[in-house]
Design a protein that fits this description.
6-stranded antiparallel beta sheet; RRP7_C; 6 strands; alpha+beta; 320 residues; Ribosomal RNA-processing protein 7-domain-containing protein; RRP7
Length: 320
């Protein structure tokens, strides 16, 4: 049997020993891949973070706390952010127009005048938490091959963990997955499914409270969006551009408004074109020459008309 590689593609390979379960009464080995966290958008905590992938499907924070403690001792692990939890936490209760304006402000400028006070923010956070429906699972399951970011106490802890992973390959004493966390996490299996069936039908009072809180948050954010649109109107950004907003209506403009805007745009372009037509000197000279030639042409035509009238008048003989 070939020896287990210590690193693969820049990742340190951490073998985990999976103990037998009633559903699968055989020991198994799961491989966790670990490296320094180097995201595209840097943050102050990157130096003390580890990126992990291929995490087990039943992963929880206590599981990884126990694994890190088995490698470098307790007190080094702070938290772990699972990729799935990060995506789900970005769900917003904002209306579409409010979210668009909020994103616009973040790009346009960074000022504190649009921020609420700390007291208002805490109250709003509580309202938003109530507005979200309660979860129906006591414990989430991860997709196969999922990722996460482990936050450690300091950058020295990152070095210690990576060195400890290398020593694991020599000692062959792999961390036991789930050891010492049975009482810290809800159980899986039939108990997990039974709890899900119970949580799937929350009390009517709790549902009504969430619905009421949702509409309160929704209406507040719509009002904030309308006020924000007023502030943004006719206010140039750092590049000198003005954001066009309508605080009274967020729906698309009517057909007649669109046609009127199109007509004004065409008139503006035509006026600009006419003004630019006489911009260069040679164009002015050519224009004057054309006007003079046109005057000479008209003068010749008028002179021929006068001569013709004189000839007709000379042949006229009045009756006696």
């Amino acid at each position: 049997m070939a020896p287990l590689p210590k690193t693969i593609g820049g990742f340190s390979v951490l073998p985990l020993s999976i103990p037998p379960l009633p559903s699968y009464p055989h020991a198994a080995t799961h491989f966790l891949y670990v490296r320094r966290h180097e995201p595209k958008n840097a943050s102050p905590d990157d130096a003390r973070s580890l990126f992990v992938t291929n995490i087990p499907v039943d992963s929880t924070e206590p599981h990884f706390r126990a694994v890190v403690a088995s490698l470098v001792g307790p007190g080094r692990f702070e938290s772990i952010q699972f990729a799935a939890d990060k995506k789900s936490s970005t769900a917003s209760l904002e209306p579409a127009e409010a979210a668009r304006l909020a994103a616009l402000v973040s790009k346009k400028r960074k000022r504190k005048e649009f921020d609420d006070s700390d007291d208002d923010s805490s109250v709003n956070d509580i309202e938003e938490e109530i507005a979200r429906l309660p979860t129906t699972w006591t414990r989430p399951l991860r997709r196969s091959g999922s990722t996460g970011v482990i936050l450690l106490a300091d950058d020295k802890s990152v070095e210690l963990v990576l060195k400890a992973i290398g020593k694991v390959h020599k000692s062959k004493k792999y961390p036991v997955w789930g050891e010492g966390v049975q009482e810290k996490v809800p159980p899986l299996g039939s108990h997990w499914l039974a709890a899900h069936n119970k949580l799937a039908y929350p009390p009517a009072e709790l549902l009504q409270q969430s619905v009421d809180a949702f509409f309160t948050v929704y209406n507040r954010k719509e009002k904030d969006a309308a006020e924000l649109a007023k502030r943004l109107r006719n206010e140039p950004d750092e590049d000198g551009f003005v954001t066009v907003t309508k605080a009274s209506r967020t729906a698309p403009a009517r057909r007649d408004e669109a046609e009127e805007a199109r007509r004004k745009m065409i008139e503006k372009e035509q006026k600009k074109k006419d003004e630019m037509g006489n911009f260069y000197r040679f164009q002015l000279r050519e224009k004057k020459k054309a006007e003079q030639a046109e005057l000479v042409k008209k003068f010749d035509e008028d002179r021929r008309k006068v001569q013709a009238m004189r000839q007709r008048r000379g042949n006229f003989r009045p009756e006696k």
